[in-house]
Write a structure and sequence with these properties.
- By secondary structure, this protein is an alpha+beta fold.
- Helix content is about 55%, strand content about 15%.
- Strands 1-2-3-4 form a 4-stranded antiparallel sheet.
């Protein structure tokens, strides 16, 4: 009887000694799929995310180039086509397709600097390639989507700046400019938003996603405390 009692006490002591260890073990953030940067990461390996960037960027680029070609082929340049007019939340809006060549950057800034912005596009592509190579650009689903948009937008406008669209001016010379056609007027035509294209939209949305991502990243000392 004494031997059995001793065995029971030894077994209870062993069980009690293991409970604090299990309770003290911190939960694994990796198992929950949440990174320490506050972003929800997908379990897919980097190769799948890289393929996703290439696939979505190709789709976005294809839509941008096709839409430009279709609208310019139908309307010529310059040309316009009313699409919709109405109100949203009390704000009058008029949307039309209006073809124009942009020799500058986003929203018509920096006119006459086509080759400068073409050079910057090559720099941007190189930077995207670098961050893809070290996997920072695909560290999360959010960054994967942002990278896809930025790559598609950069390639779409670079295609036009290099004159690969094949369009020529009245003198028969190739036009080295971006094709824009999305045109919005607001407040009973009192305010005109600069004409743009889908590549511009990709760039704005992708850059905005990176800005939002920067607010999610805690400071290094906060990471060290966690």
């Amino acid at each position: 009887m004494r031997t059995e009692a001793r065995r029971e006490r030894v077994l209870e002591t062993a069980i009690e000694s293991t409970v604090p260890v299990a309770a003290a073990a911190p939960p694994s953030s990796e198992g929950a799929g949440v990174s320490r940067r506050g972003l929800i990461d997908s379990p897919q390996p980097a190769a799948i995310r890289l393929l996703a960037v290439v696939a979505f960027a190709a789709l976005g680029l294809g839509w941008d180039l096709w839409s430009k070609s279709a609208v310019f082929a139908k309307l010529g340049c310059p040309g316009s086509l009313p699409v919709w007019k109405g109100q949203i939340l009390g704000v009058s809006i008029r949307f039309e397709l209006e073809t124009t060549f942009n020799h500058g950057a986003l929203w018509g800034m920096g006119q006459g600097q086509t080759w400068l912005f073409a050079s910057l596009s090559f720099v941007a592509i190189g930077a995207i390639g670098y961050f893809l190579w070290n996997r920072q650009a695909i560290a999360s689903r959010w960054l994967t989507a942002a990278t896809s948009l930025l790559l598609a937008g950069t390639l779409g406008n670079l295609f036009d700046r290099l004159g690969l669209h094949g369009l020529k001016d009245l003198h028969g010379e190739t036009v080295y400019a971006v094709r824009d056609f999305l045109d919005f007027w607001f407040f009973n035509d009192g305010f005109h938003w600069a004409t743009f294209n889908f590549a511009d939209t990709y760039l704005v949305v992708g850059a905005s996603m990176l800005v939002l991502q920067s607010f999610w990243v805690p400071a290094e000392n906060e990471i060290a405390r966690s």
